[in-house]
Amino acid sequence: MRRLSEATYAAGPRPERVGILHLGLGAFHRAHQAVFTEDAGAAEWGICGVTQRSATVADQLRPQDCLYSVLERGRDAVDCRVVGVVRDVLFAEAEPERLRQRFSDPAVRIVSLTVTEKGYTKDAAVVDRLVRGLDARRRGSGAPVTVLCCDNLTANGRTLRRLVQQHCAALPPADGEALAEWIASNVRFPSTMVDRIVPATTAEDRAEVAARLGLADEAAVVAEPFRQWVIEDDFAAGRPEWERAGAQFTGDVGRFETMKLRLLNGTHSLLAYLGALRGHDTIAQAVADPDIAEAARGLLERDALPTLAVPEGVDAPGYVADVLERFANPALRHRTTQVAMDGSQKLPLRLLGTIRDRLAAGRTPVYAARAVAAWMVYVAVGRDRDGRPLPLEDPLADRLRAAAGSAGERAAGKAIVDGLLAVREVFGGDFAELADHAELRAVLEEQVRELLPGRP
Ligand code: CS2
Fold this sequence. Notes:
- The protein is 46% helix and 12% strand.
- By secondary structure, the chain is an alpha/beta fold.
- The protein folds into two domains: 18-250, Rossmann fold, CATH 3.40.50.720; 254-451, N-(1-d-carboxylethyl)-l-norvaline Dehydrogenase, domain 2.
- It has a six-stranded parallel beta sheet, with helices on both faces. It has a three-stranded mixed beta sheet with strand order 4-3-10, sandwiched between helices. It has a three-stranded mixed beta sheet with strand order 9-11-12, covered by helices on one side.
- Strand 6, helix 5 (125-139) and strand 7 form a beta-alpha-beta unit.
- Helix 5 crosses helix 6.
- D-mannonic acid (CS2) is lined by residues 152, 195-197, 265, 268, 339, 346.
């Protein structure tokens, strides 16, 4: 079968110039920000996507002139569109000079990122890459630029700015100070809330795209129909008219972000761990299991919602109902083990804030604790209730396994809880007090014991 490319596919008008340099050209970016940018439509806002860890996506897109399709899987309908807004792709490791040029190019006015939660840990390569890029820009054109973080972090813009500043402070003073000053006056870091469920593409998805297009597309991505983007309107050098594509601009992104993290992502993690332990392959299967659905509702309504300052104009019960409806979409086939990845990075952002706030209000957050307990059992046991192995993909995997106790399945609930609560990368910083909270410990122990295999 012929491959998707400009020669084989009559794409509509594509942006002529690259105005956005995007770090982390994964499926999420291609199904979210790229689609918003294309729908906002402007000749100067083409995207140059940078792949960070592997050349795969670049190798898939290059022969296709950077065209790819988004297969939208609704409950009842499937839609497929070809996206042409990505105009260039580069593999950072192999093409440092091209990357430097893109960073320095004054036509590039936004540098955006989707590098997942673990991309923001202190020694992750991405902050270093960003700081070097900004330095190249300062020494080159010196033109102002916006750094747009599109990951699921609390106050993501501010968080990234702080990491960049810390990185500058660690450079030799002669370079670091001048750079920090230049950044303070020329670079903005607006916060954003991004939302679209984008499961990993499967061979079946690619076959479906091929059947629809009559062309092979190695870079196709799959997504739910829903998409939302809330952005703080604080740009240094202009931006696409993303509002034309449905994005919301507000001064209050923080509330949206916390709401989304605690309601959607927190519940997603609960479904992932409880579901995987019960042998459910997909999130839709997990939420169709009445016991798990009850826990999901409990987390949403009883634990998380009371901790939130709901943004103006948002109907909280409606939001909760929509989240459950989106998870129940069987056509997405989002794997529980995919959402279970990187739990050590996700739990603090999604669940521990709810737990801390409820405990402070004198309440016991039973369901949020159940989600954490399910993560603990997932880590400690590594098998579902039928004995099938569950992959532990996490930057702290070895540490977590060791902390959970080598006794594995036979380890008592207490040993697992004690061991994992002592992992300070998870239960530290803002959440350090949780590790010593007697009531939380007791609830976790009870729940871990209930979830350990051998129980009905
Ligand atoms: C999910 C998110 O993989 C995960 O941990 O919870 O990626 C989720 O699908 C998105 O944040 C939805 O916007």
